[in-house]
Fold:
Amino acid sequence: MRREERQQLIVNLLVENKTVDLDDLADRFTVSKMTIHRDLDDLEQAGVLRKVRGGATIDAGTQFESDFRIRERQGSEAKLAMAETALELVEPGMTVMVNDGSMAAVLGEMLLQKRPLTLITNNAAIMERLKGETGITLIALGGIYSAKFNAYLGVVTEEALSRLRADIAFISTPAVSGRLAYHMDDNVVRAKRAMIASSTRTCLLVNHQRIGHTALHVMADLADFDAVITDSAPDAAVLEEFERAGIALTIASTQDPT
Structure:
């Protein structure tokens, strides 16, 4: 088996199980542990996984978010539920901003249901899907392309956003703890903040499994958002904390504001 094939199978196992064990991989592929170590090193360098003692994981850490190619294959039901709920905030004729990420990519395609729209995005998956669609004025933000996030980021992106204005921005995050939303990449944080600053209204999208986690950088206070959408109710203590802080939380699975 070629190295590329073996590494793709490792990625498939990670999508299915979230973690892999070094010894199990060596047995499965009938290769040495050192070979598996090199495979995991290659995939970690590409931003696909992070190595842990005895194996690897795609679970987000404070300084790690898995590659877009991993995330787009995960949690499709939750993404669809959140996107459908977010879509209720959009009316034809609006100017909408959508950020990077696999969750946002699902929403981006659904926005076709609300055309005519002007759509501003740095998300390469959305650009590819919506280019040429009638009824969509697509403003594609330039910048430095990041394969890890499948998005354009950096000073060029931020400068363009400073000269634009949207009716609403949809912002996704891999971590929420207390009243704060986090992200592990500083370039992504700056792009998201620029979108927040350039929009009249803002909506945060977060998988309920990411609530109670932090990342390296504080991105925003949840009170900065007009709406926060998640796919399933978090713990009662979290709900109480949100309520005390006046944070509007919508549970997409029931589409019932809490």
Q: What stands out?
A: The chain is about 40% helix and 25% strand.
